[in-house]
Amino acid sequence: MRILLLNQCFYPDHVATAQHLTDLALGLKAEGHEVTVVASSRGYDNPQNHYSAYEVWQGIEIHRIWTPGLGKKAKWRRLVDFACFWLSATFILLRLPRFDVTVCLTSPPLISTLGTAVAALKGGGVVPWVMDLNPDEAVAAGWLRAGGAVERTLSFLQGWSFRRAARIVALDRFMAARLMAKGVPSAVIHTDPPWSHDDAVRFDPEGRRTFREEHGLQDKFVIMYSGNHSPCHPLDTLLEAALKMRTQRPLHFLFVGGGSEFEKVKAFRQEHDLDSITTLPYQPMSRLAASLSSADLHVVVLGEPFVGIVHPCKIYNILALGTPFLTIGPEESHLTDLVKQLPTNETAFSAPNGSVDKVMSVLSEAVSRGFKGPSVESQKLAREFAMEKLRSKLIRVIEEVAATK
């Protein structure tokens, strides 16, 4: 079976979609399938990172697309990068042979529409793997006006590609409900979350000790937010709590990752002269276990309008670690679904967006309890999201689509 994977990010990039798509590619290759990837030649979070235009890596053929790498500081910069990706990807896809199945992720926005258009010309099935929904996300973030000409056009393109999809992979029940509200038949939707990186992420006591020593965190109680810093995951509540608790030792806030809001965290730290905040860039996969294990409490955030639009997949790595965590977000979401399955006030905590006092109360309680090691309950729940379990299910979905084309 010949499979094309289409997304902005792929190995060796570190962002979540790159890691999950790389896992899928390796799994498909291990099953004996022929795998081709079309992705960007620049790093997602750092456009200064350049990757080879073409290479064969572990038997996977990778075609990488040049873009200007203008970054995310302004909307027009993003639009130019997206347009260049689309244009270059079109030429590459038209040049490549027919594929039995094209798996499209969602970066840049509506890339599944391009994959669908090329498959309509050449044949083969299309499986959108919906990591986030656009233009829904752009509307929820205030970047697009609902009902405007641009939004209507993008929604039309999204709907066209979804109606032609052989299967659509939704990440949670809320996303599946949104897809059905758009007219996607429930029979077409396969609902499964992204897997944890259980091959690379597990609680690492030695890595924890080394990472904390390296960054001067030995005697701190570390509250960590790790991953993409975006408007979909508003950090205002957590930052205000950090400001109000600035004198409460040994509390320390560690922000690791990147994204459009990462610079705002740095600016907040500088504006308020907060030595209780440390910021670090994305950590390579080889150091991910050590980085994540260094936390005493993890924080996962979801903005109110983004339920069913985005899916903070970092939660599954946190479950695998067994580290206590706090979710800040809506009362109903896939995060609260998980919290309800764990013993609260011990392992899993939750607070609404904007409730600074509640967050401060949780953090104070966590500090008073101290870090007692990994939670057996969390690690048991994490097995439901293990890579080999969920990746195998997704591979079967892709193979079923190929068998019908």
From TrEMBL:
<feature type="domain" description="Glycosyl transferase family 1">
    <location>
        <begin position="208"/>
        <end position="326"/>
    </location>
</feature>
<dbReference type="Pfam" id="PF00534">
    <property type="entry name" value="Glycos_transf_1"/>
</dbReference>
<feature type="domain" description="Glycosyltransferase subfamily 4-like N-terminal">
    <location>
        <begin position="18"/>
        <end position="194"/>
    </location>
</feature>
<keyword id="KW-0808">Transferase</keyword>
<dbReference type="InterPro" id="IPR028098">
    <property type="entry name" value="Glyco_trans_4-like_N"/>
</dbReference>
<dbReference type="InterPro" id="IPR001296">
    <property type="entry name" value="Glyco_trans_1"/>
</dbReference>
<protein>
    <submittedName>
        <fullName>Glycosyltransferase involved in cell wall bisynthesis</fullName>
    </submittedName>
</protein>
<dbReference type="Pfam" id="PF13579">
    <property type="entry name" value="Glyco_trans_4_4"/>
</dbReference>
<dbReference type="GO" id="GO:0016758">
    <property type="term" value="F:hexosyltransferase activity"/>
</dbReference>
<dbReference type="InterPro" id="IPR050194">
    <property type="entry name" value="Glycosyltransferase_grp1"/>
</dbReference>
